[in-house]
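Journal club prep — side note

Before the paper discussion, L.F. wants everyone to see what a predicted structure for a comparable chain looks like in token form. Sequence:
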Amino acid sequence: MTGNRKRKQHGGPYVSGAAFAPAPYPYRCRMCHGKCTLACADAVEDVIDFRTANDVAAFIAEPVLGEGGIIVPPEGYFQRVKEILDRHHILFIADEVQSGFGRTGRMFGIEHYGVEPDILGLAKGIAAGLPLGAFIARPEVADSFRPGEHLSTFGGNPVACAAAIANIDVLVEERLPERSRELGAWLLDSLRPLAERFPAIGEVRGLGLMVGLELVVDKQTKQPAPDLAARVRAAARERGVLVGVGGFHGNVVRIQPPLVIDQDQLGLVVEVLDEALSAALAG
């Protein structure tokens, strides 16, 4: 169970030996007072110094936080964090389970930030629905494993592996990451007018076809509106569109359609969300 999901469900305690740094969450930042100074990145060093024994194995982060509410870290965040990690000889693991394989407009989400992770964690989109997980590592990291040190009961399932190879071929041949980037930009531009019309939309954000609408009770206080998000999800479902809800407070409507969706279908998504927001606010 991820840290974010455990927090939402009030589960605990956390795994011993794990420490958490503040999320790079520009919309709800309490550190920079309106002008980003990357204090959230600098806080990673504080966590290393004061919440660990300074023998940290790895730092794990999603390039775009999925369950966390489609949070896009601020520009420069990962560069600053990588500098800190390198000083402390800590590996950087990019969790690409949601953001990988074209979802954000690049093959892998971390490519947006100009840093090279030591390990990529992969799943979900890798095999287009078939169960498969994998990881990629720098040669010196991968070569450190000896036979028997890494194993899996269902590792190397030939059907899932064949599906992954075919899926990756389609992603490359049909340029789906590039298409995701173009359609995602169109979707963001189409959703932003809704934020002007509906005060309940605190922020529209995302990369590629990984988009979130953060719903609030009041734009000034930014009080989360989880009940409204649940009503919007239900109203959209009644109108034939499935969206998710995420975020620590459960107030972010998540839009993560198949990468093969076309612009007309995305237009329908925008129309349905417009209707769903009106219906949810009226109810």
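L.F.'s comment for the group: The chain has two domains: 3-173, 176-282. Keep this in mind when we get to the figures.
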